[in-house]
Amino acid sequence: MKMFELIQTTLTDMNIVSAITSTIFIILLGYFFRKKGIFNDQVGKMLSKVVLSVALPALALTSFMMDIDQKSLSEGMSILIWGLLIYIILIFVSKPLYHNYKGDKQDTLRVLTIFGSTTFFGIPIVGAIYGAEGVLYASIFNIGYRIFLYSYGYIKMSGLKMEAKNIKEMFINPIVIATFLGLFIWIFQGYLPQVTVAAADGTLSKVAFLRIDQTAVWLYKPLTYLSGLASPLAWLAIGATLGSVNFKTAITDRTSLIYSINKVVLVPIINIVFLAILSLTGILSMSAIGLGVVVIMMATPTATVAAAYAISFDKDALLASNASLLSTISAVVMIPIWIIAIYLISFTRLFG
């Protein structure tokens, strides 16, 4: 298939087009509401809290309510391994990226580049494009993110040793709890106590008692409603946040511009290159959906926690704020481009 035909096929795929337009339109709606005063300066924060404490945990848990087979298990393990390796790689790669910067500024730029807003920004977009399967893989990928964000990220920004409160934050978190619970159910569903359930056609089958999508629909259904809030509320919050900040200060900051390009362009490219090499050598294989999940998650703007570290520990807080804003704008522009690029890459058959 020629390149023009590939692009035409991509741009006429309604799943891709609708995912892109949904993201952009709802973000713009949040921006418009904030500018018009329909949303006040607290709405973005409140929506973020609802997403992080309720919607995303529900989305993470329900995404694991599916049958497991050797292919999906293998894919999940590949994503888990890569989710750990990529942060180790970025720790080393980020240093030469900012060799012209010294001290706190270099530390801040490196941490902000390594850690993106995978939970708040990435997972809702992944869910819109790839559905429950994508969210499942994104949740597995985020395990490495959480481990390094609350360990390396904290130590690098604070200059202190790891504290108990950060270990607690790493694990006693609704999203983390939902992810590990869902992962446990998904992997071990064949070994858990089984119950007999009736399908819509009247046939009987045995499933793990914790597969609430079949054994406790009364509980599963409200969770699906809550999980459906994740994407629209997250996008409204992003728009509301963008509508309340000063663009001029951030856009004229050359360092923030360099950072934003590195974060939403270079980091995803690094992932694609390494994964292509690993796939070609047979060391680690990943499907086109797996690649898409990884690229979207890594093309996200500054992680809120990483920016909070910079502010809390006075590690160039102004830079962190400007970088967060500019990278968010850049990500909104680049995510649609990456979605199309991933779809085109899938035609190469490099990723199964």
Structure description:
- With about 350 residues, the chain is an all-alpha fold.
- The chain has one domain (about 5-345): Na+/H+ antiporter like fold (Up-down Bundle), CATH 1.20.1530.
- Helix content is about 75%, strand content about 5%.
- The protein is built from 16 helices and two strands.
- It has helices at about 5-10, 15-35, 45-65, 70-95, 105-115, 120-160, 165-170, 175-190, 210-215, 215-225, 230-240, 245-250, 255-280, 290-300, 305-310, 315-345, and strands at about 195-200, 205-210.
- The protein has a two-stranded antiparallel ribbon with strand order 1-2.
- A hairpin with a 5-residue loop joins strand 1 (about 195-200) and strand 2 (about 205-210).
- Helix 6 crosses helix 11 (about 230-240), helix 6 packs parallel to helix 15 (about 305-310) and helix 15 (about 305-310) packs antiparallel against helix 16 (about 315-345).
- The chain starts with a helix and ends in a 6-residue tail after the last helix.
- The model has no long low-confidence stretch (mean pLDDT about 85).
Main features:
single chain, 16 helices, Na+/H+ antiporter like fold, 352 residues, mainly alpha
